[in-house]
Amino acid sequence: MSDIVPGLNEIVETPEVSKEELTMAADVILSMVKTSKGLKMYLPNNPLVARFIEELTGKMGRHLALYGDFKLDIDQFELRYRGKAIYENRVPKESIAFKMYFDGIRYLIFSEGIEEHELCDFLDIIGKDRPGDIDDDIVTLLWEKNLPHLTYILAEDFLEFDTAGGTLTAPVSQQEKINGVYKSISSEHIPSPISIIPQKILVLTEEETEWLKKVREADEKRKPLDEVIHILTSILVGEQDQEVFGEFVEIMTKLTDNLIKSEEMGYALNIIKFMGNMGTNEKIPPAKREMIAGAVRTLFSRETAETLARIIDKTELMTAEELADLLRNFGKPSIARICELLAFVETMNMRKVIIQALVELGHDTPEVFFPYMSDPRWFVVRNMVFILARLAHPAALDTVVGVLSHREPRVRREVLNYLERTPDPKAKNYLLKFLRDDSQALRIRAIQVLGSSKCLFALKPIAAMAASDQFQERETEEKKAVFEALGGLGEDQMLPAFREVLMKKYWFNKAKEKESVICAVAGLTKIKSEGALRLLQEAKAVKSDEIREIIIQAVVALTAENSKSIA
To answer: Is residue 193 assigned to a domain?
Structure first.
């Protein structure tokens, strides 16, 4: 849980104290918390900490000059100024209120004239963690520092006045009382340490004991890195000064970069998500959001992409869901680096995650992918064509057909898939170029797409292809695809040509005759007319044996289909 200091809109004026005074008091506490966290991370002479200390000293001085002593009531998890809570943190290890309350401090007074070193000493004492085997508590450490402009009242002080029936009109600080005791007794006559017997013992309930046990166990499990990240995120959330905010964004960015390089992906993912949320939070001023967005952009470098690829392919430190979340937080400005990441990653299911992220991020800006269409790596070009096919944006057509003659068949296959899927009517014309492709598989697929799409302009080119000398050397599968396309596109006008192929006799080459019948039958079944059925019936009467069986099957299928269409 982060330290909570009320914002300006949350502060409500009371009859006893003005809103301006409460606002200034809350600002002092905010500066105090920020400085305390800075002292935990850096030495006091660090320029950033020095600026925090200077800011705190100035704010405290102005408040004291305007309103007199800065007095705080110390509760278990809260600090109250003139009855109003201006600080809250319910995590014992982090809460400055809890630390003072636990050591018996109930009232704190900062007096006019307090110096910078006094504030530093105070924050150093209450802010830093001390091992459990150290006996010195906050009270003892404050007494040793002898801070003249800081007064603290302990629970025992109030108990003494309650017991005597007195009124605490001019309280004597615990510091002065201890000083008086030590002055009245010569140090050489002190027989043993003085043991203070409390006048009132608070007994914890079972629920409170169990709660403290769980808190202690949680504290023991916390790592130093958790502390650093918590401090940085708390400062970023509460920091008002834009320049200081920018410096801490830079610190956070460097930390995240190092975490990625160290393969501490859990921490890195959480920080990037945190920064991504801040960058889209409209309550944060635009200038600060732009700082965060710029930091995230610089964070995703080529080296980062290579590191992520290694983590994805060689380890199990990142799940598909975490990768998708990470890429969404990097956002559209990082599309170029995400494309690089896609080029590096080999794991198939993770590649799908990256492609899906690129489709989501670039759905309205296909041009961001165009530069990669000239990449010397064929698989990068293939990936880009695949993504552009998913986007189905008309602006991409000219760029995609630019790689229609790419030397790698797998790239040309993706181009063919793009031309098939895109709704742009101009795209199908480019399929004709695949009729001369070196790859038989691509030629067949292009012919099938032209036929199923009813591209009538392809009838003549496909017919010319069937009439060429080279066509006779093609395999049966390709010839069959050509006849199916011709039947689907030419319909009854193809019957004379199909009759010639179907009825032709090959006296000394039965295998060739069988291939011709297979091709003609494939075309006739696509025509689906009465004329096609009559031609098949005629051929059935003159063909024999195995070839007749092929025709009979076609007659049965075509008859059933025609009956279904009539019904």
So the answer is: no
Q: How, if at all, do strands 70-74 and 150-154 pair?
A: unpaired
Q: What is the pLDDT of residues 511-554, one digit of tens each?
A: 888 999 999 999 999 998 889 899 988 888 888 778 888 888 88
pLDDT at 71: 92
pLDDT digits (tens, 9 = 90+) for 449-507: 999 999 999 999 999 999 998 898 899 999 999 999 999 999 999 999 999 998 888 87
The span from the CA of 124 to the CA of 451, in Å, is 81
Does position 171 have pLDDT exceeding 50, yes or no? no
Domain span at residue 100 reads 8-187
Residue where the block lists tokens 């499990």: 221
| Count of residues in the chain | 567
Three-state secondary structure call for residue 470:
helix
Q: How many domains does the chain have?
A: 2
* Among 187, 218, 249, residue at a domain's last position: 187
Rounded-to-integer distance, Cα 519 and Cα 524, Å: 9
> For 441, what's the count of Cα atoms within 13 Å in the CB-facing half-sphere?
6
Mean pLDDT, rounded, for 8-20: 65
The answer to whether residues 320 and 349 touch, using CB atoms and an 8 Å cutoff, is yes
Q: Are 81 and 71 in contact (CB under 8 A)?
A: yes
Q: Residue 466: helix, strand or coil by DSSP?
A: helix
Q: Are 5 and 30 in contact (CB under 8 A)?
A: yes
Of 261, 257, 256, give the one whose Cα is nearest residue 271: 256
Structural domain includes residue 457: no
- Is residue 64 a contact partner of residue 112, using CB atoms and an 8 Å limit? yes
Backbone angles phi, psi at 453, to 5 degrees: -85, 0
More confident of the two residues 352 and 16: 352
Among candidate residues 152, 187, 222, the one where a domain is terminated: 187
What is the distance of C-alpha 548 from the center of its chain?
65
CA torsion angle 382 384 389 391 (round to 10): 170
Residue 223 lies in a domain: no
Question: What is the C-alpha separation between 295 and 307, in angstroms, rounded?
Answer: 18
Handedness of CA 162, 167, 173, 178 (dihedral sign): negative
